[in-house]
Amino acid sequence: MKRLVIVLIAALTLSGCSNSPHLDAASLAERVIIGIGDDITPPYPTPRPAEYLAAWAIESPRLPSDREAEFTIEALAWEGHSGDETGAKIDIRVTVHAPAQSGGWSEPSLPEDDATRCWRLTVFGLHDYDSLESEEIDCPTGPAPAPPAPLPLPSFPDDVDALLTTALGDPDPEAAVRAAFPDEFYSIEAATENGETAIALGIPEEHDCAVGIIHADGSTEVVRGFDWEVLQPGEMGCVPDLYFHPVLTH
User: Fold this and answer.
1) Average pLDDT for consecutive 10-residue bins of the chain (250 residues)?
2) Whole-prediction pTM value?
3) CB-hemisphere CA count at 13 Å for 164?
4) CB atoms within 10 A of CB 26
């Protein structure tokens, strides 16, 4: 992921409009940060480290397209985690250069304009609402630091079904599952009911889950695709009861 984004936006026809303050460089910069804030705080957000959010914020921001302008978006600082009470804090600098734009018979001429503005975004990843605080701050001088380079998010391997199926055939299937999936980000829980065994393999941080089942006749299967809602914090989570006592949603 890149530290900054520089994009030249082609001007659209401004038929019949006036020299709106929304088209000056400072207003364009503010619209960029509003779009970034919306993008990194989707409904039902997943808690993320600030470094991940900073990289996401500058990767491909939505940019105003109603005036020709060059935008530079940089991540200046990041700290914390959006799952913590104090949230994840990200400092962003937006620099805008808007060249002079000639008007037509019904279009205004727009003067050349430049602006550099900075904001601190605080993201709360456990809120379904009020998940963002935005505060304009003084911009530091000098270049931005090295770009945010977060580690890849935890995820199941592509062959998770095959690995889980093989482990289910072991004489000690729970131990075999733990050996096949040793990373600390996995949750593993086993239970037996009515001659069947279910082993739930989850990635709580990503709300992902697979349940391996050993049926009473010795056959096995792997079940995935559980409703996202039941895997959220405070709900059932990734547990054997997803198979034994499923929650019916609609």
Assistant:
1) 42 41 88 96 86 95 90 97 94 94 72 94 82 95 93 93 97 97 96 96 92 96 90 87 81
2) 0.71
3) 25
4) 16
